[in-house]
Amino acid sequence: MKRTVLFIAALITACVAAQAQLLYRISGGGLKAPSYIVGTYHLAPPAFADSITGLKKAIDEVAQVYGEVDMAVMMQPANVNKVRQAMDMTDGTTLDKLLSPDEMNRLNALMKELFGADLTHPVLAQQMNKLSPQAMVTQLTMLMFLKRTPNFDASSQLDGHIQNMARDKKKKVGGLETIDDQIKALYKGIPYSRQKTLLMCLVDNRAWMEQQMDDMVKAYFSQDLDEVQRVNDETLNSDCDATDEEKSILVDNRNDAWMKKLPALFKASPTLVAVGAAHLVGEKGLLAQLRKAGFTVEGVK
Is residue 87 pLDDT above 60, yes or no? Predict the structure, then answer.
């Protein structure tokens, strides 16, 4: 399992049979009406919703839509500030203290290329020197994506758009986890020493990372989960590759927590669940777990 899992948050983690769709119908298991689950890519634009066969019809049919979090709640000023604070290191730790002089030079070289400035600039240092390495990875990855996708609007993405489509139709919208849950998984799951390693992996392997990013975008937009799987399984065969524990923090443990909620949601009201595609597949993925729970799960074509 490679480190891309840590950086983009929408990747696939285990081998599955051929799957050429993103939307699945959930029936049986005592349900009076079907529910649905769709795999998203958090950097996909809203317009991509039109390319997912059956999505609009599914939203019409269900009574409620659940995402990983309720994006409207996420964007409330207090929660935006909470996430921003969670991205900073504690106890006075800063990147220039955590990294060696040589590592700082390598990081600054990449930042200069992406930002046009680096952490020797006092304003940028004030804003970013306290970022945890994992948060810095997120910022650098986003900038790399923006440079390769100049028309991308970071403020308008697929997950939020699906929830807004539901709100426009007066459907209930909810989240499977809280803001605090996401903060714990995304920014507090691994120690700074390991985060530092992963940051330098990005800095030192930019070309490889950008190729992975391009391949992953192509695979998702082709709605080819098998290809997403294949791209995700490529590794550098080094300590840059995500560990089983890191994969569990970001994907498997969250799947298990959501599976404690999903059957009850489906039985209470027809529901569409929209979560990152990484959470759908594999032996511990939501599709397999829903089948094990007695539901019939079929791709919508």
Answer: yes
